[in-house]
Amino acid sequence: MSRIIAGTAGGTSLTSVPGTGTRPTTDRVKEALFSRLESYDVLSGARVLDLFAGSGALGVESASRGAVSVDLVELADKAAGTCKQNAKLINDAAGRSVVNVHRAKADTYLLRVPADVTWDVVFLDPPYDLDEEDLNSVLRALPRHLAEGAVVVLERSTRSPEPVWPAGMERFSERKYGETTLWFAEPAQADGAEADDHDAGDAQAEGAS
């Protein structure tokens, strides 16, 4: 059973998606991921978008660790229902709607959201069998919705090729955990200053592991 690892709701058990068709992030990968994000200092007060949310575990974990708003986007009916159950844990504790669930395709959601809506952290955890062009369509819709200094985390099979990063976004790191690879990207910076900051955060995270 998945759980919230740390923060205000740390230790709380989460509802899993019934049946098949989703691939939850393991606790090992989740712990490594959030250790890295905390070294980047991007979670506290963040606006978070969780695409292909599954059970919503990554978004809910972000809320527990200080994100001020989280949008979970999931198309599958059962998974979206699970997202709502897990979001309720955070929303009830906070006494307000911190985590919101949107039942929609990831690219459709991004295209219909107003251009001035931005996020500080974006998770993409699509099914490993998602067509690369379908993934690229989602990535192309992302850059205009990235806040300054935003971090994008894409989880893919280690056997998958590196994503095709669209104009306005660039990869600054990758980490492999067995069958899982995490790709880290950010808004493109002409002078590379933001990438240097993230590299420093990478060093801190590696030192702590």
From TrEMBL:
Gene Ontology MF terms: 16S rRNA (guanine(966)-N(2))-methyltransferase activity; nucleic acid binding
UniProt biased composition (Polar residues): 11-24
Keywords: Methyltransferase, Transferase
Domain of life: Bacteria
Pfam families (alphabetical): Cons_hypoth95
InterPro entries per the UniProt record, alphabetical: DNA_methylase_N6_adenine_CS, RNA_MeTrfase_RsmD, SAM-dependent_MTases_sf
Region (Disordered): 1-25, 186-209
Enzyme Commission number(s): 2.1.1.171
Gene3D superfamilies with a match to the protein in the record: Vaccinia Virus protein VP39 (3.40.50.150)
EC top class, as a word: transferase
PANTHER family: METHYLTRANSFERASE (PTHR43542)
Protein name: 16S rRNA (Guanine(966)-N(2))-methyltransferase RsmD
